[in-house]
Structure formats: C-alpha cells, structure tokens
Sequence to fold (461 residues):
Amino acid sequence: MAFHRIPVTLTINGQKIVRDVEPRTLLVHFLRDELNLTGTHVGCDTSQCGACTILLDNQAVKSCTVLAVQADGSDILTVEGLEQEYLHPVQEAFREKHGLQCGFCTPGAIMLGAYLVNHNEPLTEEGIREQLDGLLCRCTGYENIVRSIQRAYEIMNERQNVQSQTAKGVG
Amino acid sequence: MYTAPFEYRRADTVDQAVKWLQDDPDNSKILAGGHSLLPLMKLVLAQPPVLIDIGRIQALKGVRSEGDHLEIGSYTTYQELVKSPEVDAFCPLLALSAKTVGDVQVRNRGTIGGSLCHADPQADMPAAMLALDATLVIEGPQGTRTEPYDGFLMAPFITNLGAGDILTGLRIPKLPQGAHCVYLKRPHPASGYPLVGLAIWMTFEGQRIGNCHVGVSGIADLPFRARHLEDFLKGRVLDDKTIKEAGPLAGDEASWEKDEYKENLLKVYVMRALSQLGELAAAKGQNAKS
Fold:
C-alpha cells in the first residue's frame, strides 16, 4: 500500500506547526520523533499508563491512542509548553512536594494535574486519587503526587489572590 | 507502536461518510474516538485498509433534550455524558455508568457510539442502554432508520449493523420523575472492565416498587435485560426478604456456561444494588421498611 502522507496543521505549545504525516503516525510519535518534544513519554503504548498524557483542546488525553491526523487543527499543550512567566502551579507544587521519584510518569502526572486544576473546583484527596486512575507510577509514588496536586490548587489560589490585589492597587 | 498502513479519509458530513463507506464496505471502517479501534489496530488484531474519520462531524456531537427523550450524538464522549446537565436531569443512570468507564483521559476521548459499535460484551454502557430502552439511529443505504438497542449485539464484537450503516445517534426515553438509579459494577482488578455491571432504575408507588428496569453487562455471553427479576420486583416492598429472593433471579435469563462463581457474583451484586436502591428510596421516605 502506498505510504501517502497527509498535511496537518496544529498549534503546539502556542506555535503553529505544519507537517505532512503518514496517517498511522500516533500523536505521541509525532511529538517525539517529528518535533523532538521528548518530554511526553511512551510508557505502555496501550492506553493504560498515562505517561503520554497531553492536553488536546484543553482535554487530558493519552497521546498514544490518538492519530496525529485526528489532531489536525487542534491546540496541543505538552509538558514543554506549561511554563509561562513562572512555573505552572502544578510544576511548582511537584517541586515543593517532591511529586516525582524516577520521573518517568511525571510528564503525564503533571499534564493530568494541570487538567484537573484547570477544570475542577478543588477536589478532595479521594477525588484526586479517583482522577489519577489513568496514571501509573511504577515507583508507587502516589502519596506525593496527590499532595502535589492538592498544593497546586493552593498555589493557583495564592497567585489569583495576588493578581486581584495587585489589580486593586493593594500591596 | 505503529499500526498497519491504511488510507485515511476525514468526512465532513454524515452523507459523505455513508457514501465512502458504501463505496467500499468490506475494506472500510469508521473511526470515532479510536479508543477501541486503535488499540486493536496496534495489536494488529484489526487491519482495516481504509479509515473514515467521523470526528469532525458536528451533527454527531452532544446531548439534546427533545420532548420525552434525549437525543445523543454517536460521537459524544463519555466525559460529555458525565458532565451533561440534560443527562443529569433526565437520565442520570447514563452518567453513573459512563463515569466508571476507563479513566478520565479515556473518557475525554472515547465515544458512546464507538463503544457500542465495538460491541465488547464486557463493556459498561450496554447495561445502561438496555435498562434505559435506548433506540439507535442508523444511517444506511436506505436512509435513516431506528431500531432498539436490545438485539443490536449478535455475538461478542458483532452487531447487526449492515455493511454500509453508520450509527449516528441514540434516543433515550427520559426516566419517570423520581426514579432512583444505580450502576453497580465489580471491576476486573487489572482492566477495570466489569466482571458484572448492573444498571437499574426503579420507581415507587407509595411503599411498593412501581416500575423497574435491570440491564446486566459483563457476566454473560452478551449483555441482557433481566426481565424475570423486573417482573418479580414490581409491586413488592423492597425489604430484606424481597432482596434475598430477588438475588438469584437475574441469572435465570443469562446465557452463559454455568459457573458457580459467576452465579454467586451476579446474585450478590443484584442484592447489593437493590439494597442501594432501597437506601436511596428510604431517604425519600418511599421505603420505610428497608
């Protein structure tokens, strides 16, 4: 069969990317092998472990189970694009609370964490654990991942408070 | 992991997808969220030469309330069902089931239509589809038709969709006011798929059970409606005695190889689910004897 390629245009970490891809290219391979964004990891490659979690149009998805052609036209955020002026609250929290051990699942853990703090009212510890169902940490370092995400909500709030006070001319 | 090579086509409309599918039905496969199909293709258990992507067809997305039923596009994700105010208001059983599927990343991408057409007899959603009397909206060579979900699965992984057919939506009757819902599953410890999944809704008339539908997934050869159990329950008080007698009845209609473990598992889960319904009803003062 002909290995025909298809043009795709994506916004990845705020940058417009145009490439021709073979249809069977998985999004995670496109990110890693075509764009050299190797922060996103391939763990199990069977949509179990979550190390490849990225944000696709603000939704946390496993990039090993999405074709690059399916993501054509989408806005993608990987762990490389999370830091803006400061570390993202989740990154800051993982640093403070030692949310990583070997680091392999960390890009997935951080992107899933970013999805949670962007989308939900602060979750209870149990709620966070439930949402971490799709992330396997083989160091079994879940305690600190949960603490990190709890802390990320606090950092998010602290930053918002500082922003609103600055806007009011206080402090 | 790479799949075998395939030709990729992205449909902008249902008509276009139907036409492409009919042009070459033997070699073409519909791609929705891809969360059942792509894992199969990666394991080379499926090698469709042509994939028709329906992920950009707006008409296939979302939940709408229409009169006495909900109209749900086949490309609606699990997470959209979980978050939908319409589902919450009129068919909460659907959200209760959907939120137990996979994990949040999978629910963000996997679609209800894709899952139903994949026809895994171990899946969660068939139990709710059966309990809710879902109707399928199918686009095919002869135009649009509807058929009940009950009977859609012919065998594991085989539906009665014709070669040129696409599932475009679901119609789900709104539950009667005050219906209590439970989805109770025993997840497989590794896969999370239900060893048994019970979707039940129940209404009360005074202190007695009015109407009740029970869908069962995971445990038998195919998902099924437990009608003997439903008939037994109607008109009874949902007390310990009823629950104990009801326990073994769902197994009556299961098509399965007799297996002591499965029979016991189903019995225990029917009893637990009924107890939960009893508590929900008691909280509303409908089941004082529980």
Notes: Residues 89-168 of chain A form a domain with the DNA polymerase; domain 1 fold (CATH 1.10.150.120).
